[in-house]
TrEMBL record:
Described purpose of this protein according to its UniProt entry: Plays an essential role in the initiation and regulation of chromosomal replication. ATP-DnaA binds to the origin of replication (oriC) to initiate formation of the DNA replication initiation complex once per cell cycle. Binds the DnaA box (a 9 base pair repeat at the origin) and separates the double-stranded (ds)DNA. Forms a right-handed helical filament on oriC DNA; dsDNA binds to the exterior of the filament while single-stranded (ss)DNA is stabiized in the filament's interior.
Stretches assigned to the Chromosomal replication initiator DnaA C-terminal domain: 354-423
Region annotated Domain IV, binds dsDNA, chain positions: 326-447
Domain comment quoted from the record: Domain I is involved in oligomerization and binding regulators, domain II is flexibile and of varying length in different bacteria, domain III forms the AAA+ region, while domain IV binds dsDNA.
UniProt keywords, alphabetically: ATP-binding, Cytoplasm, DNA replication, DNA-binding, Lipid-binding, Nucleotide-binding
Family stated for the protein in its record: Belongs to the DnaA family.
Binding site for ATP: 150, 152-154
UniProt protein name: Chromosomal replication initiator protein DnaA
Source organism of the structure: Agathobacter rectalis (strain ATCC 33656 / DSM 3377 / JCM 17463 / KCTC 5835 / VPI 0990) (Eubacterium rectale)
GO terms under biological process: DNA replication initiation; regulation of DNA replication
Domain AAA+ ATPase: 139-270
Superkingdom of this protein's organism: Bacteria
Gene Ontology MF term list: ATP binding; DNA replication origin binding; lipid binding
Length: 447
């Protein structure tokens, strides 16, 4: 329904793809309270006042036409959304029905495997997701994807949904956020009659694939956990696929009931980490390409170097420049980029280069753990990265040899000197070592 409304705004007002993608498509229904429909503007950078001025009326009209209800519309930002308290809780949701076969309607059309950039941070989660998409109910059940905000969990989840429906339009795929799930449980309990509960169970227990996003929010809500547990068991016994996302692994969800925790751990848990520099660049390039946005690589580099822990913010920065470009019809220069992004990126605060950071980056580069790095092991797969870390700590920080030795597992002076000398010599004589070191340096300090 919501997509239908947004499409209607697009068509009736002849919006171009960029305008639509920049302003309209990101909008979400946050809640309906009485006669007020709250629309979430997912990022402050999108310009809430502009949207309000320009799209308030078109949205109101389209909502009226599609739902037949004259809602008051209110735009809100994520932080306001969190503090919103509703007077009236048993409010109608935008009509949610049992999923029709082959129904993509509550999946974001842009979240597909094709638009997902695979990097070291998400390779495992990506292949696990693809396996589940190819063989729902058979590969891993449940699939549990976890990681910090804005790292691509929802994107992967929707990709699985699209893939399954495209392969087999007869599959019933149901995607809900855990708020939606919770609200529906509460609503059906509140209604107090068995038909409300039957309806709820019909909806959830007859699907082939159930996806619940941000499952951490069902925690601490007892009745919801209970209902979830039964839904989960029913579906799993029938070999139906369950996919969950969360911001943390089950073992870190303190108030999660033990029996549910153990169910989660039956399947496969896949985490998504923060993207490295190459992945961030690849995501920006891909997005610029999709949006037909002709933007210089050094500007993408500027964004990728300064925003590292959240892909939503990374995209937000690019979107902001795209919006500027479309409004001003001007090529984006570095000056413009720095000015437009000044509230997102504060370049006077570059990340501090510490020996600890170097050790972590080097370990990551060689796919070994920090524990291995600082262990006593002398095998060459570990010893060489360790010597490279010594060299980089010496050349990139002002730490003394003693400090470096301490951080690298309590090694003495002469070991550190020996390591540094060896790598220095290698660096001078050997092209491949030089390239390797420069690559790692770039990861440590992208600027
Ligand atoms: P999460 O659910 O983990 O908070 P999302 O899935 O909503 O994060 O991702 C945030 C934004 O970043 C989305 O617009 C998504 O398309 C984009 N994104 C995340 N990971 C990738 C990726 N690997 N390739 C392309 N886009 C990505
Ligand atoms: Mg998400």
């Amino acid at each position: 329904k919501w997509n239908e409304i947004l499409q209607m705004v697009k068509e009736e007002h002849g919006l171009t793809d960029v305008s639509f993608n920049t302003w309209i498509k990101p909008l979400e229904v946050f809640a309906i309270d009485g006669n007020t429909l709250y629309i979430l503007v997912p990022s402050e950078q999108m310009g809430l006042s502009y949207i309000n001025k320009k799209y308030y009326l078109p949205l109101k009209v389209a909502i009226g036409e599609v739902t037949g209800i004259e809602y008051d519309i209110q735009f809100i930002l994520p932080d306001q959304a969190q503090s919103l308290k509703f007077k009236n809780n048993d409010t109608p949701q935008l009509e949610q029905q049992t999923p029709v076969k082959g129904d993509h309607s509550n999946l974001n059309p842009n979240y597909t495997f094709d638009t997902f950039v695979v990097g070291n941070n998400n390779r495992f989660a990506h292949s696990a997701s693809l396996a589940v998409a190819e063989s729902p109910g058979e590969a891993y059940n449940p699939l549990y994807i976890y990681g910090g905000p804005g790292l691509g969990k929802t994107h992967l989840m929707h990709s699985i949904g699209h893939f399954i429906i495209d392969q087999n339009p007869d599959t019933k795929v149901l995607y809900v956020t855990s708020e939606e799930f919770t609200n529906e449980v509460i609503e059906s309990i509140r209604n107090g009659n068995s038909s409300a509960m039957t309806k709820f169970r019909d909806k959830y227990r007859t699907v082939d694939v159930l996806m619940i996003d941000d499952i951490q929010f069902i925690i601490g809500k007892e009745s919801t956990q209970e209902e979830f547990f039964h839904t989960f068991n029913t579906l799993q016994t029938q070999g139906k696929q369950i996919i969950l996302t969360s911001d943390k692994p089950p073992k870190e969800m303190e108030t999660l009931e033990e029996r549910i925790r153990s169910r989660f751990e039956w399947g496969l848990m896949a985490d998504i980490g923060t993207p490295d520099y190459e992945t961030r660049m690849a995501i920006l390039r891909k997005k610029a390409e999709t949006d037909n946005f002709d933007i210089d690589d050094d500007i993408l580099n500027y964004i990728a170097s300064n925003i590292s822990s959240n892909i939503r913010e990374l995209e937000g920065a690019l979107n902001k420049l795209l919006a500027f470009h479309n409004l001003e019809h001007t090529h984006i220069t570095m000056d413009i980029a720095e000015r437009e992004l000044s509230n997102i990126i504060t370049p006077d605060k570059p990340r501090e280069i510490t020996a600890q950071l170097i050790i972590e980056v080097v370990s990551e580069h060689f796919h070994i753990s920090v524990d291995q790095m600082i262990s006593k092991t002398r095998s060459s797969e570990i010893a060489r990265p360790r010597q490279i870390a010594m060299y980089l700590c010496k050349t990139m920080t002002s730490d003394s040899l003693d400090v470096i030795g301490q951080l690298l597992g309590g090694r003495d002076h002469s070991t550190i000197i020996h390591g540094i000398k060896k790598v220095t010599k290698d660096y001078e004589e050997n092209d491949s070592t030089r390239t390797l070191i420069e690559t790692i340096k770039k990861k440590i300090n992208p600027n």
